[in-house]
Amino acid sequence: MEALMTQLAQVLHMNQGNGETSYDRNSAVGRKAISIAKPVIEEAVLKILGSDVMGIESMGIADLGCSSGPNTFLLMSHIINVIHTRFRTGLDHPSPVTELRVYLNDLFSTDFNSIFMSLPSFYTKLKQDYDNGRDSYQHLIHPLISAVPGSFYGPLFPRKNMHFVHSSFSLHWLSQISDGLNNKGKIYISKSSPQRVLDAYSMQFQKDFSVFLSSRAQEIVNGGRMVLSFLARPSTNPTAEHGMYVLELLAHALMAMASNGLIKEEKVDSFNMPCYAPCAEELIMVLQKEGSFITDRLEAFEVDWDTVAPDDLDHDQVAFDDDDDQVIFSGQQVANNIRVVTESILEPHFGKEMMDDLFQKYAEEVSKHLSSCVTRPKYTVLVISLIRNF
Ligand SMILES: C[S@@+](CC[C@H](N)C(=O)[O-])C[C@H]1O[C@@H](n2cnc3c(N)ncnc32)[C@H](O)[C@@H]1O
After folding, report:
1. How far apart are CA 359 and CA 339, in angstroms?
2. What are phi and psi of 363, to 5 degrees?
3. What CATH number is attached to the domain comprising 223?
């Protein structure tokens, strides 16, 4: 079990570069989640600035599960902008923050180099945005950005060092899931899954999230805050159909390949995607049991499966009617979005040479599903704002 966990932490990464199947070009769902959570993030940061938390003059902020961009930069500029806007009036209200430490965390195989390469343009944009405001660049606190490779299911930072921790679309990744659950023809919780599969997923999530909370509890100062966005499910019933049905369709594609003799059926039975969409009740239960954080705010949002652009709020642009081309386009978009986040885990199990065929078949399965849907399929996102409570 330990070996599997080590392997996942070393293997998982979003697809790199900026090609057609890169995270860079297929991260609109995550970007949408960040933009939806912006008011919650802003409120949390302002509340920290308005309180007298320890050591705020050297403010520590972190994005956990930052991936290799571009969403982490969107988030960082938002936070930095909130801090500067709050104290823009300058001399009347000198900012209590004189140093801004920014930590970007993700697993070991993440392309941190691509983050570093983007830093010069990030700094330039920050300066331009600031110069466009009323104050001059000399008032801008230059963020000191560091990368912190490692699993957030364990210690990452020195004790009592952080003031604001953010994580978006990352905590649904489990540290591990057993490959011996014999989840026949499925790769995630499904209506046909035996109870042991449901229990294994739920227990692993509770254990992981609890470790996450107790690790952050050591690192965040009293009164410090976290905003966490989860891929979640809207009901307490884990087998009710919801956004994670994307993985049921991926299982269909794998089983179709097994029927054609391209992969062995046992390979599908023994693979379980190490991710889990909790419901709000489950989150609250773990938070209360672990006890280090108070919940300040909890909100649920929906994001379309086939979100293509960050601020695409016009849901009518893609209509699911008789327009076959549109459905094919959306199926391909969903397939690309899922490929960039799952390929690094699927490849070692099913083989690199299978990936193009698999995701071609998957795009067809998704299109077929979309054309049969009465309402647009959506992911549920839970955004939770927490306060460190000693
Ligand atoms: C879908 S991406 C989200 C990236 C970014 N936060 C966004 O919103 O676009 C999920 C990220 O979580 C990271 N991740 C998963 N498990 C992790 C862990 N245990 N520790 C740190 N990062 C993890 C993955 O490597 C991946 O980059």
Report:
1. 7
2. -60, -40
3. 3.40.50.150
Give 298's strand partners.
384
Residue linked to tokens 């978006």? 168
Atom of ligand 1 nearest to the CA of 175: 19
Q: Identify the residue whose C-alpha is closest to ligand 1 atom 23.
A: 65
Phi and psi dihedrals of 275, rounded to 5?
Answer: -140, 165
Percent of residues in the chain assigned helix, strand, coil, to nearest 5? 45, 15, 35
The count of structural domains within the chain is: 1
Q: What is the DSSP letter of 191?
A: T
- Give the model's pLDDT for residue 5: 47
Residue among 10, 79, 106 whose CB has most ligand 1 atoms within 8 A, to mutate = 106
Which atom of ligand 1 is nearest the CA belonging to 208? 19
pTM of the model: 0.89
Q: What are phi and psi of 328, to 5 degrees?
A: -65, -40
Instruction: Determine the structural domain holding residue 214 and report its residue range.
Output: 2-388
Q: For ligand 1, which residues put their CB under 6 angstroms from it?
A: 12-14, 27, 30, 34, 64-67, 71, 105-107, 110, 151-153, 168-170, 173, 175, 341
How many A from CA of 170 to the centre of ligand 1? 4
What atom of ligand 1 comes closest to residue 151's alpha carbon? 20
Report pLDDT for 313.
40
Listed as ranges, residues in the chain with pLDDT below 50 are: 1-3, 5-6, 310-320
DSSP-based three-state secondary structure for 78: helix
